[in-house]
């Protein structure tokens, strides 16, 4: 597998890329090649006073490359100019990346949890599964908030094709997963809708698959606003990562994520693994 790791050369990016436990998790899901990508915004020029971009980029990427190679991965670095999320998506397609990783600062105690603009735009437009790796906020020496990326998963489903596609990611995540909580939220708009199979029975089918892979599994059916209920489960169980599918975007125009997945990506405390539709294929 090939992973793309995006960096803006900040302290948050450094800890996301160099964390030994996080690299081990990528290795467990069969990642062998890591593409490091840093994008210089088009409005920033190396000749600007006080800006030494070339030397800073070289030193940081050399440092990252050394750490990643020492962890047993092949590494290729890409330094490009333009709009970050667009260039990252373009490189992900070019190198046929299987997933992308982007670090994002966590919650400030004085404000709502809002992810950075690049992470937010990637979540809305990503062409490959995207791991939003949460980093401590408001500190000069940040740490990742959940080191074991896929050890304890929270999978959210509405039994749509988007959710089924996200569940399929367990086919490779399972090598790093020990526990999983599977949650369906029945929203008020679903009341009175008949189904051939009950949500608990459908969750049990998912659980049976995971248990054949020796993943300890719990299921839960909740009632209320889906995003609120999912975030409540996260607060109570503190999973490493929330696994969720998205509707992605159309070929004609960019669309926002579905409201539930958008809120989860924006407001979750820990990591989020977002699986988009395979539209680019």
Automatic annotation (TrEMBL):
The keyword ATP-binding applies. Keywords: ATP-binding, Nucleotide-binding. One of its GO terms (molecular function) is ATP binding. Residues 2-132, 150-276 form the UspA domain. Pfam families: Usp (PF00582). It comes from the Archaea. Gene3D superfamilies: HUPs. Belongs to the universal stress protein A family. This is Universal stress protein. The lineage of its organism: Archaea, Methanobacteriati, Methanobacteriota, Stenosarchaea group, Halobacteria.
